[in-house]
Amino acid sequence: MSSIEERLERNRAYLAGHGHRELPTSPSLHLAVLTCMDSRLDLFGALGLDLGQCHLIRNAGGIATDDAIRSLLLSQRLLGTRSIMVIHHTRCGLESFDEDELQGELEAEFGRRAPFRLGAYRDVDDDVRVTMVALRESRYLLGNDIRGFVFDVDDGGLREVFDDSV
């Protein structure tokens, strides 16, 4: 059985015990979380969240890409979120490669580099700070309540990263 077929089978079992729940579209905690796509991050469990409480925006590295800012803009302007948590994590795959090297490989294979930043970094705390600054400086976001954190994928702990520029 393929991984997708197994997920569909599990969904049928989930439906049997789920029941009907009509949750509001706007997150009840008025919170958005920008984080990494890493499968080791169980942020609903780690933050004590339930369905309908926050928006969870994921991309590789949890960086402030145009699309992440687009999602946060919609979250704030249309659905009432006011606070943003930036959560990066330990042992991220973006710490393990060289951006120029991978861009060179892409250019060799496809004849051009990717038209976007891949997001490689060396220091997770610095990258959290860079992301917080980018969000605060975006003219499209209400950037007054943005805080950054590092999630430890091994023990589930959350450590705050402070931005000295605030």
Radius of gyration: 18 Å
Tell me the count of domains: 1
Specify the CATH homologous superfamily.
Answer: Carbonic anhydrase
Q: What percent of residues are in strands?
A: 15-25%
CATH architecture assignment name: 3-Layer(aba) Sandwich
For the biggest sheet, the summary is: 5 strands, mixed
The rounded distance between the terminal residues' Cα atoms is: 52 Å
Helix content: 25-40%
Q: What coarse outline follows from CA principal-axis ratios? A: globular
Q: What structural class do helix, strand and pairing data support?
A: alpha/beta
- How many E strands? 5
Mean pLDDT: 95
**CATH class descriptor:** Alpha Beta
Q: How do the strands line up in the largest sheet?
A: 2-1-3-4-5
**Total number of helices:** 5
SSE string, helices as H and strands as E? HEHEHEHHEE
Report the CATH topology name: Beta-carbonic Anhydrase, Chain A
Q: Which ranges are low-confidence, i.e. pLDDT below 50, for 5 or more consecutive residues?
A: none
List descriptors.
five-stranded mixed beta sheet; Beta-carbonic Anhydrase, Chain A; globular; 166 residues; alpha/beta
Describe the structure.
The protein has a single domain (23-161), classed as 3-Layer(aba) Sandwich (Beta-carbonic Anhydrase, Chain A). The chain is 36% helix and 17% strand. It is built from five helices and five strands, in the order H-E-H-E-H-E-H-H-E-E. Strand 1, helix 2 and strand 2 form a beta-alpha-beta unit. The longest helix is centred in the first third of the chain and has 16 residues, at 3-18.
